Structures are given as structure tokens and as C-alpha cells.
Amino acid sequence: MIITSPCFLYTSDIATEIADYADVAKRIIDLAVFGAAQNRSYRRLADFTDTIGNRVSGSENLNMAIKYMYNAMTQDGLDVHLEPVKIPHWVRGKESAVMIVPRVKNLAILGLGSSVGTPPEGIEAEVLVVQSFEELKHRASEATGKIVVFNQPFVSYGETVAYRAYGASEAAKVGAVATLIRSITPFSINSPHTGWQDYQDGVKRIPTACITVEDAELMWRLSKRGQKIMIRVTMAAKTFPDADSFNTVAEIKGWQHPEQVVLLSGHLDSWDVGQGAMDDGGGAMISWEVLSLIKDLGLRPRRTLRTVLWTAEEQGGVGAQQYYNLHKVNISNFDLVMESDLGTFRPEALQFTGSDAARKVMEEVVKLLAPINMTKLETHGEGTDISPWMQAGVPGASLYVADSRYFWFHHSEGDTMSVQDPQDMNLCSALWAVVSFVVADLQDMLPR
Amino acid sequence: MIITSPCFLYTSDIATEIADYADVAKRIIDLAVFGAAQNRSYRRLADFTDTIGNRVSGSENLNMAIKYMYNAMTQDGLDVHLEPVKIPHWVRGKESAVMIVPRVKNLAILGLGSSVGTPPEGIEAEVLVVQSFEELKHRASEATGKIVVFNQPFVSYGETVAYRAYGASEAAKVGAVATLIRSITPFSINSPHTGWQDYQDGVKRIPTACITVEDAELMWRLSKRGQKIMIRVTMAAKTFPDADSFNTVAEIKGWQHPEQVVLLSGHLDSWDVGQGAMDDGGGAMISWEVLSLIKDLGLRPRRTLRTVLWTAEEQGGVGAQQYYNLHKVNISNFDLVMESDLGTFRPEALQFTGSDAARKVMEEVVKLLAPINMTKLETHGEGTDISPWMQAGVPGASLYVADSRYFWFHHSEGDTMSVQDPQDMNLCSALWAVVSFVVADLQDMLPR
């Protein structure tokens, strides 16, 4: 006698239901990777970034980018609308740093988002070089009146970014007048990287910028030899009142449950250096490409496929947080939230956060990607913009790519179309489309 | 009966003679790689570049560098002297380029050595983008009054550098007013690379600079879409009368044939960007290190070991050519000329140019490097500075290293201490010292 548990029955049923999508999945893949849509997401990204350039929160470029995408997706025959958001407006202004003792050497810097500026004549001070917060604590008495240079080694982005985020306030607590922080990257061609930083409440706000790995190591060597170092840093950075912006929303309405949603996303804003091709133009473009592919094939899922291009992600997921606040009342209708913000290089896996039952469904879904050999399902969906939903229990998925060089370019002048590959983007689009379409078309929403 | 040919006898004798150096070679290797001299060439290079920085032909920094090395090698107990040389004096001055149509975008540029400047207000002109000299020829009629942008793909440095060297004159011949050339590198983080360029006699001299791979590709995409591109380029570059400089010469006199010489070398000058650590601080330091190692071990070869730190290599081997002109009268006493100017990363081989008979000797010599597993002898010694000697028939050797990233940093702000590794430099020094000492100490000079 064979006893079948309900769970087994469920799995078996859903496996069969999903396996029936093999033909549809194959058609999506063929169109995206080998057919008429081949290289389209790459071409769209090139047209977009070549036309607009970078587009930092609060900038006129970001306004232009939103208009550009609104028009482009409308012309593509999609249902597009904008949802208003208030976003930070920080402007870098002119900035420079020069080591003046023991010799004159220009330092390549990038001020950090939200940093205050210096007086117009700059800040000139002696330098204290430390390798960690720990060392800063031990040498707190030496920091007063100094520019603290952090030469922390790169361990991982997730771990090392703490120096960029909190370095200024930690140094201010022990009396520093400015901070220069080694860029958060494992590799450099004397290339500084920017990013957001957070002042702590009640702590003096001091100017803060990233310098290059090379210059941080240079000053560390000088200080190890007991040499006195002086720097003059000048930053015209300024924060203006919050600006008006929009999340850009395009969708294909579901035929059976239009109120239920599979959400695809990337962020449209970027930093104010480089071209924002990798971070996150690619994620935005493949999320648009999904709707184009589904439409081109004359498909329409049971549930709504919604693409959201977030605004002001780089300032801490500002657009996405406001979207969540506005739409969380309908949280029970959000089936799956997806974000691509780790690059659109060669896809390696779908990262997924959800219940065990939902994971079982997703394991079947990724099997449909066998024709392009991308059937790996990892744990932990990630993405600043989808995390409020995941924290509230909505299943979330993200695109994981072969990203060994991602942080070489991240938030630097090196984030350009030259790091993107059309065929890799075809594969990202195919994966993104098969997963979202099938989940949106299943009989049932993903179990929570 | 066994018949031994004279050649076999010769080979056998020299093989035995060289094999007897195994103990000496081992002592040199032990000192350089594991002993008291461990990391010394790296430390010296760090002290030198951190103190002086870059040192372009004609600059005060180059004067300081020569003084620094004269003093340092003298303090090391070596016999040091300077040999006067007249060298080019080109000064970059302030320079910038901005794409103004179809949108405003700053272009990172580096003017090329010997380029003329622009008028103070700059040159503003429409752009013609080409991918090759061939394409420029086909589109010659479109070039008049334009800024020609070369977006040639990187094939190899040796092949692709022709665009940097000759791009300006080729474009001027068809009426261009300036040239912007894609940097000669296989990889970029929006990093421009400089280098020497040659104006052709009788051709109008137009300003010429390198732009980044990324910006060259951007403008190529724009032009492929039929978009008009306008650029304003401003360069204050200026050429001054030739300046006074020196080749820096240090030596350990041979005990038996002091007039016979094994010459070791690297060049002391660099470009005016980056720190000149890789090109060619490393080569200079290991060539000094050889003398230190031999002296530390109390060794003295039959022939003189002479280290020459060339001046103005980057302007076409200017110091080395004058050295050759001065010393070629003694050419019969030059046993072997060696140069390290391909980087001091992990050594892979000794490159050698010489007669078959000389190669047989060198094949035995490199066997002495078995303890560090570096017994590879390649063909074709190379080096701008030693080539006059090799062309005149003197055996020449160069250090070949694992250089896959060499051109990523070459002539850019990325040429810093951060690309150097102390252990790799130990190995380079050991190889360099064993080869030069043994050749200098053999009964006979290398056969020509």
C-alpha cells in the first residue's frame, strides 16, 4: 500500500502544471536569445544611456530619463503611468584633494552622497591613517583636528561598505575634521568610487569622500614610515530641498486576476559618475524587455505583470519605500516581487526568498530554463527596493549573475556600456521573462 | 669508438663550467628570495616612488629621481657616476575635452608626448569616428575640418600602438584639425593612457590625445546611429628646448677583465601620470638589487657588472641612444646587455637574442634557476634601450613576466605601487642576479 501525503500530491500537481509551460518557455527563450528580440535590451540600454548619461536623484537628467522611459514604453504599446515620489537632492559640486606634505600629489576623489561641503577655501589638515574602526578607537586621541584616512582592506562589499557609510560619523566622534575613505572595490586603476553615506544623529557632520585604493595605500606606507602627511580637501557639495520625481510603472494586465501582481523591477536612477549602464540601467531594461517579449508573443498571463523602474534607489531605496507605503494595503495581491540590481552579466541563478512551499514551486519553474542551462535556484532574494515586501512576507526573487568584476565598476566612471554584453543581456531577459510569466500565469498565487 | 665533435666538446665543457655555479646561484637565490634581502627591491621601489612620484623627461622630478638614485646607490657602497644626456622637454599643461553635441559629457583625456597644444580657447569641431587607418582613407573627404576619433580595437600593443604613434599625422594629411585616439589597452575603468607620438615631416602638426575605450565606443555608437557629434578640446601642451639629464651608472668592477661588461638596466624616467612604479621603477630597482646582492655575498665576477638607469626612454630611448653612441667604440667589450622594461611581475622566462652558440651557453645558465623553477629561455631579447647593441651584434637579454595586466596600467594613473608584489620582485631580482653574475664570471665572453 502506498500512502501519499497531501504535500506530495501538491508538489506532483504543481510540477505537472509547470512542466506544461515548457513550450511557452521555449518560445520566450527563442525569441529573446535567438529570434527577433535578440540584443534588443542591449540596444535599448545603449540608446538610453548614450542619450541621457547618468541620472542622480534630484537631477534634471533623472527627469529626462523618466520622460524617456515613459515615452519609450508607451510607444512599445504598454500601459504606462508615473507615481509621484519625493526624493533627496544632493549636488556634488566642484571637488578636489591634494596631498601637500610630504610632496604635492593630486588625489582622485569622489565626494559621498549626503556629505556636507568644506568652506570655499577647503580644509587643510594633518592626516591620521587607520586601517579599521578598531584602530581608530585605539588612536582616538590622535584624531583631533585631523583628516582621517581609512585604508581598510576590501573583504566583501557587504562588510567593507560600513567604512563608506559610517566612516565620517565615527571619525567626527573622535574630533576629525574630514574623512577620506579608500574606495569599496577589490580592484582599481586609480579609480575612485562614490556612494551614499549616513551621518549619525547628534554627531558633527564633516565632509567625506572616497579616494583610490592606490592613494590610500600610498598614505598608509608614508604613515608607517613615520612621515607627516598634510592634505587640502575642497568640496562644494550641497543638499537642496527634496525634489519631485516618479516611479515609472508599465504593465500587462492579467486576464483573470488583474488585481494580482507579479512585480519586475530595476532602478532608473544612478550615481552622478559613469553612465549608470550596469547600476542599474541593465536591470531596468530587462524588466521592460519582459513585457515586450510577452506582448510580442501575444501572451497574456492570468495575473498582472508589472514593471516598476524605481527612482532614488541609490539614496536608500527612497522611491521603492514610498511605493511600498502606498501599495502595502494590497499586499495580499502581491504574488512575487522581483528585482535585478546586481548587474546583467551572464546569469548564474535566480535568488529566491519565500516559504518552503513557495520554494518547491520555484524549483519547478527554473527547470523551464533548461534550454539555456540556467536552472539554479539560490536562497536569499535580494534588492534594496523589494526588501520591504520580502520583510512583510511576500516572496521575492533577484537575478544573480557572474559578477566577479561588478564592484570594479560600481559607482565609478567605469560604469558604462563597455561592461555590458548583448548576449548576456539576452539570457538575463529570457530568464527574467520565463520566471515572471509562468508565476503570473499559474492557477494559484505562490504560497506564503 | 666514439667520435666527439668540437662543438660537443665545447658544449660539454661550458656545461660543466656553468653547472659548477649551482652553489653560488643557490646562495644568490636564498639571499634574494628567503634571506636578508627579501623584499628589499620592493621596499626600495616603494620608498623611491612614494618620495619622488612620476618623473617625465625634462621635469624637475626626473632630476630629483637621478639625485635620489645616485645618493642611494652610493650609500649602498657602489661605484656610481652620471653620464650627461640631452633629453626632450615636453610639458602637458592643462588639458580637457568635452563632448558638447549631442549632449554635454566630459571626456577623460591624456595628451600625447610631443603633441602641440590648441589655441587657448580650444578647438571646437565636428567629429569623424573611424575604426582604422583603412576606414580613414576611404572617408578622407569627410575628414576636412573635423576632429578625427580613432576607435581602433585593441589587437596587441605592438600592433595597435601605431594609432597612437601615427594617428595625428595620418588624420592631418586628410585635413583633420585634431585627433582623439582610443587608449592602447585591452581593459579600462574609463582610464586614459598617454605615450609618445611621432609627427611626420612636412605634415601639419595637430593636437593629439588619447581618450578612454569607453568614450571611443560611445562616440562610435552615436556615429553609427547617424548622430552628429561635436567636441571642444583644449590642450596647453608645449615643447621646450632640450634639457640636461643623465644616465645613472653603478658598477662592480671585474677582477680579471674590468674593461669587459655585462650591462643590466631599466629606465628611471616615466610618464607624467601615475607613479612609474611598473614602467619602469621595477626594472630599475632589480637592476640595482643585483649589485647589492653580489656585494652582500662578497662576490666579485671576472668582468664588470654595470647597472645603467636610462633617462628619457619614453621619448624613444634617448638616453640609451646617446650611451650607445658614446660607448660603441668599445663594443667588443660588451659581453651581454640586459634590460627589464616589461614589468617586474612573476618572472616567466629570460628572453634572449644572440648566436646559436651563445644561446647554448644561456641554456645552461638558466638551468641554475631550477631552485625557483624559472629555467625557460625564450627567443628575442627586447628593450628599447638595449636594441642598438643587439642590432650591432651584442647578445641581449630581457625579463619576461606574467604580464596579462601590464597594459591595463601602462602609461596611466594606474601605474602605482599597488600593482607590485614583493615576492614577485624577489624572484625577478634572483633571476636577474644569477644570470648576470654567472655570465660575467665565465672564463670566456659569450660567443657572438
From TrEMBL, chains A, B:
**Keywords for the protein's UniProt record, in alphabetical order:** Carboxypeptidase, Endoplasmic reticulum, Glycoprotein, Golgi apparatus, Hydrolase, Lysosome, Metal-binding, Metalloprotease, Protease, Secreted, Signal, Zinc, Zymogen
The source's domain of life comes to Eukaryota
What sequence ranges are listed for the domain Peptidase M28? 247-433
As one GO molecular function, the record gives: metal ion binding
Question: What's the short name of a Pfam family annotated to this entry?
Answer: Peptidase_M28
GO BP: any one term: peptide catabolic process
GO CC terms on record?
A: endoplasmic reticulum; extracellular space; Golgi apparatus; lysosome
Record InterPro entries: CPQ, Peptidase_M28
Subcellular location per UniProt equals: Endoplasmic reticulum; Golgi apparatus; Lysosome; Secreted
Q: How does it assemble?
A: Homodimer. The monomeric form is inactive while the homodimer is active.
Similarity comment: Belongs to the peptidase M28 family.
| Protein known as | Carboxypeptidase Q
Q: In which organism is this protein found?
A: Anabas testudineus (Climbing perch)
Per UniProt, what is the name of the gene that codes for the protein in this document? CPQ
